[in-house]
Structure formats: structure tokens, C-alpha cells
Amino acid sequence: HAPLKNPQIKNLGSFQKNVSKFFEEVVQLISDKSFDNSKKVVSLSTNLMDKTVKLRKEQIKYLKSDTFNTSISLLYLDILVESKNLILYTTYLLKASKEFTRHFKF
Question: What is the separation, in whole angstroms, between the first and last Cα of the chain?
Fold first, then answer.
């Protein structure tokens, strides 16, 4: 594959920072077994998933206008889809951990 283009790199860089913050928050909540801020983290998860939709729509516009190479665009779209899946599954893990901890009172 050719390298990603500057707008793609910029968007992914910003997105990656937010995703990293999300994962750090989830790890902290699960490690501490303190789920007081879980609603905030779930809200962050929702915002990140919404952001993936926005970025995908932008990329599809670029694809339609032939601004970017198709293979680069497919790679970028794959990154967004897999990121969304990771965020979704991590949110499920957080919710399950919260219920498990609450049920077994660890």
C-alpha cells in the first residue's frame, strides 16, 4: 500500500489520541474495581463510535471524488471499522466487568 495522505493521518492521529484516552479510562476503572465514572466512559465510547461514522462518511466523499487511491481508502476504512469494533467490545467488557464485580462484591 501507498502511505496514507496527510488529511487521513491528521484525522487518525486525533482519533487515536481519543481512543487511547478511552482505553486508559477503561483499564483504570476495571483495575480499581470502581465504576463510578463508567457512564462517562460509555458516553466517550458513543462519541468515538459516532466519530468513526463521521470519518467514514468523509472518506467515502474522498473516494467518490477520486481524491485518494482506492487501496489507501480501503485500508483507512478498515482501520476505522476495526477501531469501532474494539471500542464496542471494550465497552461490553467494561459493562460485564461492572456487573461481575457488583454481583460477586470483589
Answer: 48
